[in-house]
Amino acid sequence: MGCGVSNTYNFMRYSQEKVTENEPGSLVNNQGQTTVRRNVQYVNQLLMIPHQGITTLQEMLNNSIAKYGNQPCMGKYEGDNFKFMSYNQVNEEAIHLGSGISNLNLVKEVQEYQHYKLKLIGVFAKNRREWMILDWANIIYGCTMVPFYDTLGPESIPFILDQTNIETMFISGDATKSLIQCKEKHKLKNLVLLDPISEQQIAELKNKGYQLFKYEEIVENGRKQIVQPVQVSPSSVYTFCYTSGTTGNPKGAILSHSNFISAIASTQATDAGINSTDVHISYLPLPHVMERLIILTMLYTGATIGFYRGDPNLLKEDIQKLRPTVFASVPRLYNKFYDGIKAKINEVTGFKKAFAERAIRVKLENLRSEAKYTSGLYDKAFQGVRDLFGGRCRIMITGSAPIQQEVIDFLKISACCPILEGYGQTESTGLSFSTGVWDPKSAHLGGPAANTEFKLVDVPDMNYTSQDVINGIKTPRGEICLRGHGVFQGYYKDPEKTAEAIDDAGWLHTGDIGLITENGGVKIIDRKKNIFKLQQGEYIAPEKIEAIYNRVQGVAESFIYGDSLQSQIVAIIVPQKDFVEKQAIEKQIQGDFEQLCKNPEIIGLYQKNINDYGRANKLNSLEIAKLIHLEPQPLQNFGCLTSTFKLQRHIAKQVFSKQIEQLYKSQA
């Protein structure tokens, strides 16, 4: 896998049209959309299970215990290195934990979703072994995990408590601080502590009416009286994944056992090739579907998982100790690695610098022509980079947001291994597209997962159609719609939002605009919905922000833009002329209105006002623009508004493309 496959790019394809006749909801003979496309290896039938007899996560774990029982499974940092529990030991503790939960009646069965009887249990902690052992116990005893995390925001936690009516939460010491700040506890009454906490915290939690248990107490209780496992079905609800709200409360995506089983099968159908010799470091947030899917795939294959210590500052040391063979990350962190590696190379002088520059040039040429990742001689120039990732990384994965081509190509040649780009949403169980090791081109999605079919639907308002031609070549463009075994069951207690996401034919509308590449892959080029992701993977709702900015003193209009390759938003602000001129007089600044809009002191004043007003109105740090362009002309003069004075973002993006580019350059 380390060496690319020469001259394959010209004839290898990611997808092809699905052969179908009069299928309900089919695109055949329909206008305004492409034909349905599938992975070239699964054109006739989408992949549902990894192999016969594994239709639920419960069956998957039983299979892994039987095959890999004595092999190391989950580890955490103890003393000066990682210590591991075997698959058998993890399973035993999960049985004891689940039995203890049952014996103490900590989870009640409720019938709150269609015909399902749900047993909901919360967890609020960073990645750790106990988190996954609880997940394992839930799989055995048919409970549904409801993960919480701090970035949901203080208002979202009570909302989820109210919507789910959970009575028991497993919680880390750090997370108790967030819970104490919540005004409402709703039906939550039992807290299982994963860490020791102070006497003051104990008193505060008890004053709020919580009953406290220790994790070890629950396990010990179950050890004394073991309860028989509960059989689950493929349609059983495995977990809720709450996505950060963009214009309101978070939405709880309902994901079943079959959703994840098909996603695991599809992950194994990619070039990742996870196997029992692999080692993975878990630090990406477990409440997010990407890390959850990676962990479950590792468990299916008998691989080893080490959990970081929860401190980003210690992650580098954790990597060195664990020495993973598979490394997954997001563009934001890869960009930091890239910047650090480039800085080190720039410090080199003389012969070493000349050798490094030649190594970069030759390896990039080989990568982009033959998808070749290694080179006996020139790999020596990057030994320090390989050591940075532990020294034995054979494959890397990136997801959650797009990554720049120059970054991913450089990391491929310096880490001397492939980096697979993946795309998926919470609503599609994390994997919908993946690139191949054989592909020399970067910065695209690759082809559809083995459990997924896709189509592109025209978005005429944005001039994207299935009949588009670019440079003389037919290049279908439109909204990416997905269908298959990975598509979620809906949003919990929110039929309206569910209907917006999934149409009557079962198609999940992603809101992402894509084009089909010459070899059947997909590349994202725009966003249909008025939300976007920043480099951190966090969603931004520009309309909400603009509504607040437009109330700032001196602001007439605003346009918020964010690039998923960038870590900040930019703001195009149309200032009120009389306010600017008044400030200029007070500050003794000379110039006409257009000149004043370029004055650093005036721009700084607007930045301060936006910062102060934004924070007063509970905008977070990512929603407060530090990159501002003051535009003296109203947006209407540029044709950016509809007849009803609604902002047309795709036009505004084009109109202010130079200003946006300049603002992002100014932060470099």
Number of discrete helical segments: 21
Please name the CATH topology of one domain: Rossmann fold
The level-1 CATH class of one domain: Alpha Beta
**Record field, number of beta strands:** 31
The average pLDDT value, as a whole number, equals 91
Report on the structure:
With about 675 residues, the chain is of the alpha/beta class. Among the domains are: about 60-65 and about 85-230, Rossmann fold, CATH 3.40.50.980; about 530-665, ANL, C-terminal domain (GMP Synthetase, Chain A, domain 3, 2-Layer Sandwich), CATH 3.30.300. Helix content is about 35%, strand content about 20%. The strands form eight sheets. The chain has a six-stranded antiparallel sheet with strand order 1-2-20-23-25-26, with no helix packed on it. Strands 5, 6, 7, 8, 9 and 10 form a six-stranded mixed sheet that branches. Helix 5 links the parallel strand 8 and strand 9 (about 190-195). Helix 2 crosses helix 3.
Protein topology:
Elements: E1 15-17, E2 37-39, H1 57-68, E3 72-78, E4 81-86, H2 87-103, E5 109-113, E6 116-124, H3 129-141, E7 144-148, H4 156-164, E8 168-171, H5 175-181, E9 190-193, H6 199-207, E10 211-214, H7 215-224, E11 237-243, E12 251-256, H8 257-268, E13 279-282, H9 289-301, E14 304-307, H10 315-322, E15 326-329, H11 331-347, H12 350-370, H13 383-388, E16 395-398, H14 405-415, E17 419-423, E18 433-434, E19 447-448, E20 452-457, E21 469-470, E22 473-474, E23 477-484, E24 490-491, H15 495-501, E25 508-516, E26 522-527, E27 532-533, E28 539-540, H16 542-549, E29 555-562, E30 569-575, H17 577-587, H18 593-596, H19 600-616, E31 627-630, H20 649-655, H21 657-666
Parallel strand pairs: 3-14, 6-7, 6-8, 8-9, 9-10, 13-14, 15-16, 16-17, 30-31
Antiparallel strand pairs: 1-2, 2-20, 3-4, 5-6, 11-12, 12-24, 17-18, 18-19, 20-23, 21-22, 23-25, 25-26, 27-28, 29-30
